Amino acid sequence: MIPERKYSAIIVAGGKGYRVGGELPKQFISIGGKPMLMHTIQAFYDYDYRVRIIVVLPEGYKPLWQQLCDEYRFAINHTIVYGGETRFHSVKNGLSLISDEETVCIHDAARPFVTSGLIGRCFDIAFNDNCGVIPVIDEVNSVRRLTEKGSEIANREELKIVQTPQAFPAEQLKAAYNTHYLPVFTDDASVAEISGIKIILTEGEESNIKVTTAFDIELAEFYLKYLSKR
Ligand SMILES: Nc1ccn([C@@H]2O[C@H](COP(=O)(O)OP(=O)(O)OP(=O)(O)O)[C@@H](O)[C@H]2O)c(=O)n1
Ligand SMILES: C[C@](O)(CO)[C@H](O)COP(=O)(O)O
Question: Where is this site: Positions MEP for the nucleophilic attack (predicted)?
Fold first, then answer.
């Protein structure tokens, strides 16, 4: 990061992880010997220790998180804010701590394997091109569209799988989030696009998985063991 640039990351960890099952929200589940959220925060610190990190937690989970940070001696500096009912509301709460002149990345805590290269590329494109940028990868499966009569084949060449971090000039994204929630707002690009922000696609990473199910937790453990032996 060039010194005069102000890069901030909002790591959204405000969900409950229902699709994993169990009581503990997935971002606090240990993978590779420490809670998933610590891996994700570490990824941004490893990219550049000067990035300001804001972590959005589920309401009431700050004591648990502080206990985990003490237990694991996790000392990377970050600011905590509580999230809301949906990812949209959590991002909105995080943005309340961001000033207009910053470049901001929104990243899922559930994507702990994001690389420094992808983080840096997203920040730099958003800064240099003054627009939104999101990582995408190809859809390699056949896909079908549901219809009233059942379903029909869809052209996978017209589709991309969207990831995070999603980066924007903060002034633009804050203005876009000054709106009411819509169910279509499953990521930040969907909010930005409706407000007219230009969105650039950049190559994502197959390894940048979103840990969503119990199987993904096992996959994440396996992947970390594989990385430790490389
Ligand atoms: N109200 C919410 C919902 C989600 N997230 C975050 O957004 C990211 C992507 O969401 P998802 O993978 O769906 O996480 P959960 O909502 O926790 O999962 P589930 O839908 O299974 O409950 C996660 O890091 C999650 O913590 C958030 O900050 N606030
Ligand atoms: C933001 C995201 O990870 C991009 O693919 C995805 O939209 C999150 O969806 P979720 O249902 O909140 O996991």
Answer: 156, 210
Query: Ligand 2 atom closest to Cα of 162?
Result: 5
**Gap from CA of 185 to ligand 2 centroid (Å):** 9
- Confidence grade of residue 230 (pLDDT, cut at 50, 70, 90): confident
Cα–Cα distance for residue pair 19/214, rounded to 1 Å:
8
The tally of domains found in the chain comes to 1
**Atom from ligand 1 closest to the CA of residue 89:** 1
Model pLDDT for residues 2-41, shown as the tens digit of each residue = 767 899 999 999 999 999 998 999 999 999 999 999 999 9
The answer to whether the CB of 25 falls within 8 A of the CB of 121 is no
Which ligand places an atom closest to the C-alpha of 83?
1
- CATH number of the domain within which 59 lies: 3.90.550.10
Among protein residues, the one with the nearest Cα to ligand 1's atom 12 is 212
Select from 103, 28, 106, 21 the least CA-distant residue to 69.
Answer: 28
Rounded to two decimals, the ipTM of the complex is 0.98
Predicted TM-score of the model (pTM): 0.97
Instruction: Tell me which residue range forms the domain holding 79.
Output: 7-229
Sort strands 143-147 and 150-154 into parallel, antiparallel or unpaired: antiparallel
**CA-to-CA distance for 208 and 91, rounded, in angstroms?**
20
